[in-house]
Specification:
The protein is built from 6 helices and 5 strands. With 169 residues, the chain is an alpha+beta fold. Helix 4 crosses helix 5. The longest helix has 21 residues.
């Protein structure tokens, strides 16, 4: 996560930076707020439903040991990715996106049990979160892994490239 001075000065301050995915905007201040909201981060041996690597409850982030180990094999970039990914989920726009995808899932006959791996709405939410994570990493100069499909470090649900959605807070 080290940057030399000249790179740093060319970037916007972290509070004024805006990360955008179509109409969805996430500011540096929102990322900082999501980061400082985390009071406890733990790696657990809990078993999570398919598609889930842990639980994010705002102040507490629990990551399954297999998820942590899976991202850990990619070194610092893997850990950077999962932490930024969870902070995006924990931001106001991230929570709005999650709610929007959940609402669409339920409106189309989905249930709690079917929301996860193999749910188009869940997978779309994860891909959009991955996209914002990658954009943030690129903008602040933090390695967050690969963008090459099926290569080491490529996120499970890929990156979103479909029609733009506007999460409503």
């Amino acid at each position: 996560m080290h940057s030399c001075g000249s790179e740093r000065s060319s970037r916007p301050s972290s509070n004024s930076a805006t990360y955008q995915f179509g109409p969805v905007q996430l500011t540096g201040a929102e990322i900082k707020s999501a980061f400082f909201a985390l009071q406890r981060i733990s790696v657990t041996d809990n078993i999570y439903r398919p598609g889930y690597g842990g639980e994010n409850h705002g102040a507490e982030l629990m990551i399954g040991v297999t998820t942590a180990a899976g991202w850990g094999v990619h070194g610092e970039g893997g850990y950077n990715f999962i932490m930024l990914h969870e902070m995006v989920h924990n931001s106001v726009p991230g929570r709005a996106l999650s709610q929007q995808m959940w609402d669409r899932h339920v409106q189309n006959g989905g249930t709690v049990a079917s929301y996860g791996a193999n749910s188009a709405y869940f997978e779309q939410q994860e891909a959009m979160t991955n996209t914002l994570t990658k954009q943030i990493g690129d903008q602040i100069g933090v390695n967050v892994n690969s963008t090459t499909p099926n290569s080491p470090g490529y996120p499970r649900y890929g990156y979103y490239s479909g029609p733009e959605l506007t999460p409503q807070p």
